[in-house]
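Is this the right way to post structure tokens for a design question? Let me know if I should format differently. Anyway, here goes:
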């Protein structure tokens, strides 16, 4: 069993997953449909991830001045601002219009990631972590399968404008959750949270230091792969339901690959471990 606080955190996770999945597919498609321009989609994602990075760092700092509740409300405000801008903002300069929309999207993701990590670390106890990540994985898989199909049908029925308004429901859930999540703050702590934290103290060995460039390289590759898959999907068909089904196929392929990976790693062939150890000792 997981605690009530973890359940509330999972509710926040589910709402954000629905919003992020919608933005990842249908907001990108909304931008693509205007001019069929790779530049438009690339600019949106570039500004989004720059904003995401800055706000992730800022979120970790802000919790030492305010509280996690304030950050959750910031996520909700950024979500509301995103869909309000998509609904009502009109500019002649399309590049500027795209950048203005991408900034609150990135801020929403950055603040969400930082507040989720810090809140979970401080309210989680024992098996709460195992339960949270298990349920979080299930939620992510369900959203990646169900969400694209549901919102493809919603957009076909009431258009993009109606789907933007529907997103406010999930924004409202986020705002509501912020009043029930346990309040966590480092305000008033004698020593600032990051006073003793530095690059050398975190990455203390040569092996750990190699993690930084390897993670950056992997991140660049994965973002390129995701953007390529997105543009390839849009070029295959303009039918929203077809695009949704292709995204569901991607999700199912990822789930199947993970299941195969776990089976291979958790059930190694007989004697494979000893062979691996002997090969390692040879070096």
């Amino acid at each position: 069993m997981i605690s009530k606080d973890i359940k509330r955190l999972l509710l926040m996770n589910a709402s954000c997953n629905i919003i992020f999945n919608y933005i990842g597919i249908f907001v990108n498609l909304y931008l693509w449909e205007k001019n069929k321009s790779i530049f438009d989609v690339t600019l949106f994602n570039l500004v989004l991830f720059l904003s995401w990075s800055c706000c992730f760092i800022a979120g970790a700092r802000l919790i030492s001045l305010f509280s996690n509740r304030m950050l959750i409300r910031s996520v909700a405000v950024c979500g509301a601002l995103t869909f309000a801008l998509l609904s009502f903002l009109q500019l002649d300069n399309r590049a500027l219009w795209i950048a203005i929309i991408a900034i609150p999207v990135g801020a929403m993701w950055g603040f969400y990631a930082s507040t989720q990590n810090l809140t979970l670390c401080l309210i989680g106890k024992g098996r709460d972590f195992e339960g949270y990540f298990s349920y979080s994985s299930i939620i992510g898989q369900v959203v990646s399968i169900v969400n694209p199909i549901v919102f493809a049908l919603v957009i076909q029925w009431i258009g993009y404008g109606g789907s933007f308004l529907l997103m406010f429901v999930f924004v409202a859930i986020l705002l509501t959750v912020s009043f029930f999540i346990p309040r966590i703050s480092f305000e008033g702590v004698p020593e600032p949270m990051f006073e003793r934290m530095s690059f050398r103290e975190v990455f203390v060995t040569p092996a750990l230091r190699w993690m930084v460039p390897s993670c950056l390289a992997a991140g660049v590759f994965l973002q390129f792969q995701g953007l390529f898959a997105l543009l390839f999907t849009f070029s295959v068909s303009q039918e929203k339901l077809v695009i949704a089904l292709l995204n569901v196929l991607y999700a199912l392929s990822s789930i199947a690959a993970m299941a195969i990976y776990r089976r291979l790693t958790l059930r190694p062939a007989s004697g494979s471990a000893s062979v691996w150890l002997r090969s390692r000792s040879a070096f």
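Format looks fine. Someone answered above. Worth noting: The CA atoms of residues 16 and 170 lie 8 Å apart. Residues 268-283 have pLDDT under 50 and may be disordered.
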